[in-house]
Amino acid sequence: MSKNSTYLLAIESSCDDTAAAILHNDTVLSNVVAGQEVHKKYGGVVPELASRAHQQHIVPVVHEALRTAGIDKNQLSAIAFTSGPGLMGSLLVGTSFAKSLAMGLNIPLIDVNHMQAHILAHFIAEEGYGKPTFPFLALTISGGHTQIVKVTGYFEMEILGQTLDDAVGEAFDKSAKILGLPYPGGPLIDKYAALGNPKAFKFTKPKVGGLDFSFSGLKTAILYFYQAEIKKDPDFVSKNRNDICASIQYTIIQILMDKLRIAVKQTGIKQVAIGGGVSANSGIRKALQDAEQKLGWETFVPKLEYTTDNAAMVGIVGYLKFNESGFNQKGYTENNTVAKARLSL
């Protein structure tokens, strides 16, 4: 099968978004995502409810992806799916659907690591967005993960540092919850932070060696700060919301940027790419732009729709694996899923 005629269906179901995409080679023809409103009243994702919602959404989402792309399922060259990390029940829905469809169409099934997909989303052909060259550093920041990864090839990756406890996205969301903001609170902190003074309130940055991160202590400090101020003035949050959010966001961004600067110095690599849901944060994007100007870095920020969980990023990994593994026209068998990358992120 020619690389010039590869049509690939990608499925992502690692958490609470059911997503499907169609790629023609490295170009996205459709990228459909169905969210799950049910979690808002609980203030976070409920795994059992997430898996049930995936079951309801997956057929309509795949159908819409095919319709939008203007192709028939029989034109598909392969199917890629997220195999992990993620919620077990949610992953099971996507995996089962992908496996069944691949069997029915007798086409290859390709497993994709969710974190690698966030990194390799930069290789989607998208006008106005450059692609990093190897080697580069990747900062993957989401609700479940925080990592600095050295990338020397599509599937040659080394984790240089990662969170020892909570992920940066969780730090944003839990801080927002403390302030009484609805879930998901991270985007709201970003919104209010743009209107506030980032140095109005000082939060101590955790002291963690090497390139690892820790956010549990920061969350505790924010909680104690909130409790102390509310005792003095019950309206403290409503009076200072913008400044509080700006100060929290500033502290988190400084933690991330401090580690990135160390990583660049240690490796000598000045190409830095970000990925994951938190890379949609405007403050982080601006910090990277400033580093590009002041420190001589070359930075890569993905298109907004490829930052949060989506199937297009799964599709580009599937496409790269499909070509590197020399699939030709093999049909589905239990053993023809592409081998996982050498390092499981």
In which range does the helix fraction lie? 40-55%
The CATH superfamily of the largest domain is known as ATPase, nucleotide binding domain
The major β-sheet equals:
5 strands, mixed
Radius of gyration: 21 Å
CATH architecture of the largest domain: 2-Layer Sandwich
Structural class: alpha/beta
Tell me the CATH topology of the largest domain.
Nucleotidyltransferase, domain 5
Give the integer mean of the pLDDT values: 90
The ordered string of helix (H) and strand (E) elements is EEEHEHEHEEEHHHHEHEH
Proportion in β-strands: 15-25%
Total E-strand runs: 10
Identify the overall geometry: globular
Strand order of the largest sheet: 3-2-1-4-5
How many distinct helices? 9
CATH class of the largest domain, please? Answer: Alpha Beta
General description of the model:
It is a single chain. With 345 residues, the chain is of the alpha/beta class. The protein folds into 2 domains: 3-122 and 307-324, ATPase, nucleotide binding domain (Nucleotidyltransferase, domain 5, 2-Layer Sandwich); 130-301, ATPase, nucleotide binding domain (Nucleotidyltransferase, domain 5), CATH 3.30.420.40. The two termini are 30 Å apart. Strand 6 (136-141) and strand 7 form a beta hairpin. The chain is 41% helix and 18% strand. A 5-stranded mixed beta sheet has the order 3-2-1-4-5, sandwiched between helices. It has 9 helices and 10 strands.
